[in-house]
Amino acid sequence: MLYSGSSLIVIGLAALPFAATFAPTTIAWCLVIVGGQVCNITLNRHVLTMPGSQTLISITQSLRFFGTAASPIFVLPVFMISAHVGYWMCAALTLAGLTAVLMNLGSARGREPRPQGSY
Question: With 60 as the cut, is the pLDDT of residue 116 above it?
Answer without folding.
Answer: no
